[in-house]
Fold:
Amino acid sequence: MSIDTRLKRSFTDAPILPLDDSSRYVLISDCHRGNGSNSDNFLKNQHLYFAALQHYYDHGYTYIELGDGDDLWKNRSMKQIIDVHSNVFWLLSKYYKENRVYLLHGNHDIIKKNSRICSDCFATWFSTEHQCEMPLFPNVHFYSGLILQDAKTDTRLYLTHGHQAELLNSTFWPLARFLVRHVWTRAENMGFLDPTSAAKNNTRKHATGEKLTRWAKKNGHILITGHTHRPMIGSADSPYFNTGSCVHPRCITCIEISHRHLTLVKWTVYTRPEMTLYVGREILGDPVSLDALKQ
Structure:
């Protein structure tokens, strides 16, 4: 199966959400939430992520997670991940109650395609504050793709994780999961990087980005993914965008969509003159308008 077929299949029957002057979406990918152990890559940026999530909730954004939200290759138990990062899931549950969250699966959480697993793992969570089970994401569905359609120009934004560009991480994902779970996670602890990962191998990262860019150009689509962890802002000539990830060494990155503009931003820790720390938002590059992207 070719990359063209895999990507097109991701958008078969994909939900179409409206995009207009009043729309506010934040696109975040590759959180890789873990179980709190040394291999939990999300742990070091959990406070940045929570601060950003709270900001977007307070400002009326709809949250769209483009896959690999939870690392279910390194970890077997979704319950452990929810328990360790209960504050995050509490806030996401508030989005969910207000129909302001859409969740996609990537390669590291591809098992979320299974509706039985979703009903078992995401229906409720245990609240330590209330000492009882509380609703989390009842009847949740994890999508392989999502489309945002601009009512004004009929421009469409195609959202997916991006692992479809790689045969190992899509068609042969059980093999890739085995290697990560039993080989590369242990090797990482000894200082080795996973050569099969686009996120950790610059050559593969570049090659995967090139494949996704070519697909977007060939099909005349505006494509937004994660997967490579490399944040990118596109243009009319190169209509490929990437949210980056939440596991950068000192920041998280995401794409905001508001007032019909796409803006790449990062959240990181800054220092005030009086030597106090705070979480701040920084715009990376000029916002891109939907009108400028229309072919």
Remarks:
- The mean pLDDT is 91.
